[in-house]
Design a protein that fits this description.
The chain has 508 residues and is α+β, with helices and mostly antiparallel strands. The protein has helices at 2-30, 49-66, 71-78, 82-96, 101-114, 118-123, 126-133, 140-155, 164-170, 176-187, 196-205, 215-228, 234-247, 266-283, 377-392, 443-448, 453-469, 498-501, and strands at residues 329-341, 347-353, 364-365, 368-371, 402-410, 414-424, 438-442. Strands 1, 2, 3, 4, 5, 6 and 7 form a 7-stranded mixed sheet that branches. The protein is globular. The structure holds iron/sulfur cluster (SF4) and zinc ion (ZN).
Length: 508
């Protein structure tokens, strides 16, 4: 018990220390008196050791009974070799960043089957990594994971760093959360973790309504997670807290009645009191009295800002406060599916490799070109034709391009619209190798290549259009006489002859 109090106090002191230092410095620079730092009230803290013990017990009992069966959990529990175990947890944690569990499972199983050890991953090529990662999104994760594996093998003698601090310090791409997860789950280090699920649960448990993405609040949440983590089962405790956020204390409609820690939840208590006050007021039986447990600290660093009062229609989902989301950047890209008949008449597509850095680094795509946002369709077509001409060194006119349609893909920070064209050819075409690496692939090879989900959508749109033109498929609703590809399209099924496509360029 005294250990718990000491841990909670240590956490508090650390935050006080750093916040006090910066305030003191700023005040000294202004030459004014040092303002007393605002401290949160007990409403926002875990200061009762007995309550912490009870919360741990309840949460772990629930986890033992209700946890989902997941492949990385099985591996972490059964793998005796500590480096293999840490590697297995590491891969899962990287894949689970920004991606749903249901999507990750299949990728994880294939990855661990192909590269069961750090050494195996270190020997893989980036192309292989990108191929396996294709469709999982945030591609730099796979690349960084492999770079870090190479570092462990070449510089750390194949031995994973053994503490959260060293994991974060020594491995590229391993941040505070991932380091804490690996260390607690694989090594049993009593260190907390804070991810989106944990933030939600802690903010609700302790009515934290200040911006949960602000560094000061994040610091407090880490202190809280470190104070709460169970000393004898830290890995299970951390996973239980995340599991609770993923399955019970979910963002929109939390299942409070089923919650194993509901008796410790101050957001829930607040909802109950609000309801009770409201009914008393309605009945006129008793005037509302101030809630002694409400924070009431002026300038509290963990309360919601005064301009965002409690919204009774939201209940516990008043917490955490949603950070204002930055609007994604709007972009448009013209992309051209060059298609030829391969052996046995099956279609083949030309794909090019993206640069080795930046968005979707090293992935393959159809020849593409960023567009100005206000460009008219006719102009888009011309710009794309010009570029295809420059890439191939052969003549391509705007009229050769068949308009297919548009698909939208949302990247984390970009709202991307792909304007799709197709260009049938009947011979071998490659793009200038000085500009980009290119190759022809069958449909099967395309799907096995390191291509993004956005490009799969592009190909699907082309195939759909082809199906409609051939009178197949669900969407075959084109009216008699309607033009299949819009302005400038060629008649259905007509391919440019190789001669026509590769005729002498009109300009260089
Ligand atoms: Fe979340 Fe409800 Fe449990 Fe509180 S009682 S932690 S709001 S699920
Ligand atoms: Zn407060």
């Amino acid at each position: 018990m005294s250990q718990l109090r000491a841990a909670a106090a240590r956490g508090l002191r650390r935050s006080r220390g750093s916040a006090g230092k910066s305030r003191k410095g700023a005040a000294a620079r202004r030459g004014g008196p040092v303002p007393a730092p605002a401290e949160p009230s007990a409403q926002h803290l875990f200061s009762d050791a007995a309550e912490i013990e009870a919360l741990r017990r309840n949460l772990l009992a629930w986890y033992d009974k209700c946890k989902r069966d997941l492949p990385w959990r099985t591996l972490a529990a059964s793998e005796l070799d500590v480096d293999r175990r840490a590697y297995a947890v590491w891969v899962s944690e990287i894949m689970l960043q920004q991606t749903q569990v249901a999507t990750v499972i299949d990728y994880y199983n294939r990855w661990m089957q192909k590269w069961p050890t750090l050494q195996a991953l270190a020997e893989a090529s980036l192309e292989e990594v990108n191929e396996l990662w294709a469709g999982l999104g945030y591609y730099s994760r796979g690349k960084r994971l492999q770079e870090a594996a190479k570092k462990v093998v070449s510089q750390l003698a194949g031995r994973m760093p053994r503490t959260a601090e060293d994991l974060q310090k020594l491995l590229p791409g391993v941040g505070r959360y991932t380091a804490g997860a690996i260390a607690s789950i694989s090594y049993g280090q009593a260190t907390g973790v804070v991810d989106g699920n944990v933030i939600r649960v802690l903010c609700r448990l302790r009515c934290i309504g200040a911006d949960s993405s602000s560094p000061a609040v994040v610091d407090r949440l880490w202190d809280m997670a470190n104070a709460l983590v169970d000393r004898s089962r830290p890995g299970d405790f951390n996973q239980a807290l995340m599991e609770l956020g993923a399955t019970v204390c979910v963002p929109k409609a939390p299942l409070c009645e089923e919650c194993p820690v509901k008796q410790h939840c101050r957001a829930r208590r607040r909802v109950e009191k609000e309801l009770s006050f409201a009914s008393q007021k309605l009945l006129g039986t008793c005037p509302p009295v101030p809630d002694v447990e409400d924070c009431g600290v002026g300038g509290c660093p963990l309360c919601p800002p005064a301009i965002e009062p409690w919204d009774s229609s939201l209940g516990v989902t008043n917490f955490p406060r949603k950070a204002v989301k930055k609007q994604p950047r709007v972009e448009r890209t013209a992309t051209c599916v060059l298609e030829r008949r391969g052996r046995c008449g099956a279609p083949e597509y030309l794909i090019v490799q993206r640069p080795s850095s930046g968005l979707l680094a090293g992935l393959w795509e159809f020849p593409s070109l960023p567009l100005a946002l206000d460009l008219q369709e006719e102009k888009q077509r011309e710009v794309l034709a010009d570029h295809l001409q420059a890439w191939t060194g052969r003549s391509v006119t705007a009229g050769d391009l068949r308009y297919v349609g548009e698909v939208i893909h949302i990247f984390s920070h970009i709202h991307q619209t792909y304007v799709i064209y197709s260009l049938p050819v009947d011979g071998d075409v490659t793009l200038d190798s000085a500009l980009s690496t290119s190759r022809w692939v069958t449909e099967e090879q395309f799907h096995a290549s390191a291509v993004s989900t956005a490009m799969k959508k592009v190909l699907k749109a082309c195939e759909k259009q082809r199906g409609e033109q051939n009178g197949f498929g669900k969407g075959s609703k084109r009216k008699r006489g309607a033009k299949p590809g819009g302005a400038g399209s060629r008649p259905t099924g007509t391919q440019l002859s190789l001669h026509a496509f590769l005729q002498t360029p009109t300009r260089q």
